[in-house]
Amino acid sequence: IRVSFSVINKEDGPINGLIAVLHDVTEQEQIEQERREFVVNVSHELRTPLTTMRSYLEALHDGAWQDPEIAPRFLEVTQTETERMIRLVNDLLQLSKMDKKEYRLEFQKLDFVAYYHHIIDRFEMSKGEQFDFKRELPNKEIYTTIDKDKMTQVLDNIISNAIKYSPEGGTITFRAWPVGKRLRISVSDEGVGIPKNNIDKIFERFYRVDKARSRQLGGTGLGLAIAKEMVHAHGGDIWAESKWGKGTTIYFTLPIKGIRESDRR
Ligand code: ADP
Predict the structure, then answer these.
(1) 3-state secondary structure of 128
(2) Torsion, CA 52, CA 57, CA 58, CA 59, rounded to 10
(3) Which residues form the PAC domain (predicted)?
(4) What are the φ/ψ torsions at residue 216 (nearest 5 degrees)?
(5) H helices of the chain, where?
């Protein structure tokens, strides 16, 4: 703790008082430290695709552009890397907006179960052949107030991870059930899993169990950090359970606004 004093008095007049300000240096230093780390991380994240692109462009420039086999492949690499950098910068901008509380959620009340089915349908349409999608969802209408765009982003990030970090042919299980006044939602996979001592870190910015693998799969290391901010903004919690090598489950909760019987399936 640092202490600074200011004397309160009129010019040359008697001293009327003293102000002592206590600065919590440790907290300030920690914020500073985190900021520095963040800048280092961002720089590394951008440098990796940029150096990759530079070497591919150099090779093209040195003559590879004339090779009808190699040229399209090299161009494709630079394109993929550019796409990933754009995703990274968009994710960073979004996190920075959230940090500055510079965003408003457009809440609407809806039946989360129907909405969840809809999200899963969309993934099943594109990945249904490579993965087995299993739904264990209640036969009820469970109402929550959510910002649909933001919640879709949360689910997209979680479900894409389940797909990214799973072997083809694996089962991905979707569940939702009420626990008291909260709806608990989960996505389980049978993928690579996360080592036990790292499990909470996956919600931190840029943390990855396997950097190379995440990058290769087009990850930015920010998906779950964004999901966490969004879920908190909805008044919920998010956490993970995993067995290394066996699979992972991501859970999150949302306040329930009402439950109704349903004649759905
Ligand atoms: P990324 O873009 O790297 O996927 P995320 O923030 O979405 O970033 O996830 C952070 C890290 O958490 C990932 O790099 C990965 O190591 C781990 N992870 C997230 N979801 C899963 C999952 N379903 N199975 C295994 N590991 C996961």
Answers:
(1) coil
(2) 90
(3) 1-37
(4) -60, -35
(5) 25-61, 70-99, 112-127, 148-164, 211-216, 223-233
Tell me which of 204 and 2 has the higher pLDDT: 204
Average pLDDT over residues 160-183: 96
pTM: predicted TM-score of the whole model, two decimal places: 0.85
**Residue 248 backbone phi and psi in degrees, to 5:** -135, 145
CA 224, CA 238: separation in Å to the nearest integer?
A: 9
* Structure tokens, 239: 């956490």
pLDDT for residue 156: 97
Distance 158 CA to ligand 1 centre (A): 8
pLDDT at 1 over 90: no
The mean-pLDDT minimum among 46-50, 110-114, 246-250 falls in 46-50
Length of the chain: 265
The protein residue with its alpha carbon nearest to ligand 1, atom 19, reads: 161
Indicate if ipTM > 0.95. Answer: yes
User: What is the whole-number distance in angstroms between the Cα of residue 161 and the centre of ligand 1?
Assistant: 6
Ligand 1 cavity residues, CB under 6 Å:
157, 161-162, 165, 189, 191-194, 202, 207-210, 214, 219-225, 248
Burial 139-163 (b: 16+ CB within 10 A, else e): ebbbbbbbbeebbebbbebbbbbbb
pLDDT of residue 234: 97
| Residues ≥6 apart with Cβ < 8 Å to 253 | 179, 182, 183, 184, 185, 231, 236, 237, 238
Q: Give the least confident one: 98-112, 150-164, 170-184.
A: 98-112
